[in-house]
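Researcher: We're teaching a course module on how sequence relates to structure. For the next exercise, students receive a sequence and then see the predicted structure as tokens, so they can try to spot secondary structure elements on their own. Here is the exercise chain.
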Amino acid sequence: MSNNILSVLKKDHIRRMMLEGRRGDGRGFEEMRPIEIRTRVIDKAEGSAYVKYGETKVIVGIKLQKGEPFGDSPGEGVIMTGMELNPIASPEFEPGPPKEDAIEMARIVDRGIRESHAIDLEKLCIKHGEAVWIVFIDISVLNDDGNIVDASALAALAALKTTTVPADEENGFASCPLPVRELPVSVTVASLCGELIIDPSLDEEAVCDTKLTVITNSLGALSGMQKSGSGPLPVETVRRMVDMARDRARVMRTEFLNDIWYGDTFPEILCRDLPTSFSARPGNSGNLRIIWKEKNI
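Model: And here is the predicted structure for the students to work with:
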């Protein structure tokens, strides 16, 4: 059976479920999948995080390296974001240099961090016009079950919040936390069968008319927006999508990112089935390991 026929059958099946007010995995239209965050998962990185978004799995490592600043910003550090779509993550991914999809998704994550001024880049200047810290954000997709961008953006922020700027004895600087001052959250809304759904799964992405990824800062202001798919989006629909994304981002920022702290006692693991009950227990290393089991974020 051809992929086109399978797509039609799948879309018909998803449409029938949506007419009944449900999705393939039982979620409501504005309900996200369970999310798990683990920080400090790569020993040799300055910061790192693993995020599981449903069954989409992403790991992010942060490395800092001295380099020259850009000519138009001689007193600011540099951000460079890259993404690798590992062949083990999906049969659709091929080995080799980053393809167009990986480059585009990395740019979306990068844009949200950059345009929200999430990192105080002036504090990463070592010597004006000569030397700055370059922040490399390396994203590796381990399993694709849809909505890679939102999972990657969340993992990148979690990793940045636990990143250490190395000591620079030559220039008289001690090691310190990376100066993160804003928390831009990415939320993707898909248009499918005349309905709007948050956090589309892989099957929903395959048959949706269009998607809109909306990145907002802690004040709710837009830091980035990216449309994908060929379907048209009327202005009123875009407004609805932005409002949905902004509301969801506010909850995610409170429930996840505000709980991650630089230092020895920040929570190592955050899990949410997305707010009803809470439990905490000490971890093996003495750090606090916090487990949330919640519904309907």
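Model: If you want an answer key for the exercise: Residues 264-269, 272-297 have pLDDT under 50 and may be disordered. The radius of gyration is 20 Å.
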